[in-house]
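Quick one: structure tokens for this chain, please?
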Amino acid sequence: MIRFAVVIPAYNEVATLRDVATRALQQCTAVIVVDDGSSDGTSEAVAGLPVQLLRNAQNQGKAAALWRGAEAALALGAEVVVTLDADGQHAPEDIPRLVAAAEQHPHQIVIGARLADTGGIPRARFIANRIAAFWVSWACGQRLTDSQSGFRVYPAELFRTLRVPHGRARSFVFESEILIEAARHGHRCVLVPITALYKPGLRASHFRPVLDIVRITRMIAWKLASRGLYLQGLYRAYFRKDG
């Protein structure tokens, strides 16, 4: 059994993946890369590195890649699963801080939240994140200032007990939905500040601010409606002092 494993979903990330994976290996010996049907040689970027490489024959979306990577981490006996993006937005050097927070708050989800230096976030992405944060906070019953960060530490048990759709259509919906489903089962979130790293010259994000926010909001609206609008969640997130 290992304490934690790192899962890196990657789709056409040949320019950044090797650097991210190499730095992740300096923090953890169990690094799992999921090449989600890339067409640019992404898999070859980690050739020679001691990572576990999984390849999807076709692009299945981030949700499916994350789920497959998490299942591989569970097969290794990981107690917690660390996820981070392959595009260089997240600094692998922050992994120990997030894992330490997970040890202090067992059974909770730790989110690397971009709370500082938000001026580096593209404006459309920032606005989309704020909209999503409002709705996710309401549905979770906890105020989450950054609900869209993919830099997280999950208790491994969540991937055994929760049933969260992770097909291609749920690509960017999944990371919001798993927070909501986890909250329903008593798993709160702990936010650890990280810096938003948006370097010039990198490829455009796969996240589509309008379409993906519409999909996320639609999912949350259905969940709220199924719980009679869950007004106590809104109160806990925005009006209760310890929300």
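Helices lie at 17-25, 62-75, 95-104, 123-140, 158-161, 174-184, 209-226, 231-238.
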